[in-house]
Amino acid sequence: MSFLTLTNIQKSFGPVQVVKNFNMDIQKGEFVSFLGPSGCGKTTVLRMIAGFETPTGGTLTINGKDQSALKPNQRNIGMVFQAYALFPNMSVHDNVAFGLKVAGAQKPEIDKRVKEMLGLIKLDHLADRFPYQMSGGQQQRVALARALAVKPQVLLLDEPLSALDAKIRVSLREEIRQIQQSLGITTVFVTHDQEEALSISDRIVVMNAGKADQIGSPFEIYNTPATRFVASFVGTLNLIEAKVVDPDQNRIQIGDQAITLKQSVAAHKAGETISLALRPEAGSLSDSAKSDTALTGQVVSAHFLGSVIRTRMNVGGNVISFDMFNSPGTTPPSAGETVTLRFMAADLLVIRD
Amino acid sequence: MKAQRLGAWVAIIVGASYFIIPLIGTIEFSLRMRRGEYSLDAYQSVFSDASFRETFGYSMLMALLTIVFGMLLVVPTAYWVRLRLPQMRQVVEFITLLPLVIPAIVIVFGYLRMYNSSSYLPLTGSTIGTNILLVFSYITLSLPYMYRAVDTAMRAIDVRTLTEAAESLGARWTTIMFKCIFPNVMSGVLSGAFITLAIVMGEFTFAALLNRPAFGPYLQLVGANKAYEPSALAVIAFSITWLSMGLLNLVSRFGKAAPAKA
């Protein structure tokens, strides 16, 4: 039985439906990321779990208990905000102690728990500082400690790293994951940064226009995107238009070159146009590369990106990018040159719109 | 360029003289009670007058009550408007500005008509009732300044996120209001409080027409009957206002030194 269950959750603001029949089961101790562009409804779902927004329809249960009638202060949910939201009039110690004081805990118990939490985020030496005396990264760690101090049943993280600089963002996301795993707390993390979601999640929900386009492990989301949106939003991906030649044999045609897919296209009719996806790192110009399929085309451009050279080639009107690892002996192909791209047929995925 | 600069200095000097010369004249006159030499006799006479102490104390008490009840009205209102009813903001701002455009005498006549001894709520029928009405009148009078001061302080902190953070930690609205919001808008609350103090200490219309023993009517009475004491009282009243403004300035500087970042 899942720990946090969202069933047919809907939310409308006036005539605009921002969340459409959202379904999700989250297991206890799982780290789930909601990934999507601005306005896709991910934060609204998070706020409905917290109780800050009331769903227009659907049910939300935590540990089997319906949450609809509960106010935010009755749900025992810890939340970390993008803007830190530390109380400016309180020291670090008092911020972390706030939830415990509200719950009526005794002073020795509060002090012990605050010390434990500050130790967890390695800021026990800054207990007397005020928020304005700390950096953004430190403030966010205090906000995390404050949210965890009350032993919440679910931890919600609303783009907690967005306001931080790149280096701090990477170290803090690893710290968050480590703390989450050590405490085994069920966590929902909202982000628009695919790298963040891919690097720390057990599962990712890719959201688009108020609904979940795909729910899966980071590996599944990256390697087998279910929709055109997921394919284009997560990582860099080539979207190729192809025509079905023989649905029974999985034969398709890109430009004037016919190839056989591993994935079935039996659901499509002969002559129908389908979308295929191919990761840039899946292809290679080398003969020795492990491959069972090839496409020939003309090089459009080759860009040196440091560790890789990204080459764009034209195959029957489709521009396909692929990456070559840079090494001292590598010679980038020149524009107009005819090259053959080799890859595994299994890497060429049929995606739905 | 030089001529422009000279012109600016002349304007400043003329403007300052307009305010400072009458003030110097008042101070100088207040010291001339003893014939042929300067003395503090006028001040001594004012401070030894029992009516001065009574009216000053009464007005001070009214000012404190106005500040306390005014803030209890204004802070939650500004908070709810920011948090739950942002679409009502312009309406509330308009209402709070009304005391600036409606003359005090019109307001007090309205009150007398609404709350006279033969009305459903006969506040003027008793001393306590009239005192309550006076406090409410002062709250109305200070509303434009109090609301703006508090609203500006609330703008500096992210009220919504702070509220949600406190709610997610289990806090009820009273805890949120008094532990998380009030302390962070204290600079605004104090600014509003000092302006209110300055207004109430010199207010005449409400107190006179409600027949309460306040400092404003006392100033008028002394001014009509004595020579040097009114000048001494004017200087004292100026000092109270300046003290309030100075404290206001200090509070704003203190607020800037420890910014309230959400």
- The helix count of chain A comes to 8
Shape of chain B: globular
How much beta of chain B, percentage-wise? Answer: under 5%
Number of strands of chain A: 19
Cα distance, first to last residue of chain A? 32 Å
**Structural class by SSE content of chain B:** mainly alpha
Low-confidence stretches of chain B: none
Describe this structure in words.
The complex is a heterodimer of chains A (353) and B (262). With 353 residues, chain A is of the alpha+beta class. Helices cover 24% and strands 34% of the residues of chain A. In chain A, the strands form four sheets. Chain A has a six-stranded mixed beta sheet with strand order 6-7-8-3-9-10, sandwiched between helices. A five-stranded antiparallel beta sheet of chain A has the order 13-12-11-14-19. In chain A, α2 runs parallel beside α4 (136-149) and α3 crosses α4 (136-149). Chain A starts with a strand and ends with a strand. With 262 residues, chain B is mainly alpha-helical. Helices cover 79% and strands 0% of the residues of chain B. Chain B is globular and about 75 Å long. The mean pLDDT of chain B is 88.
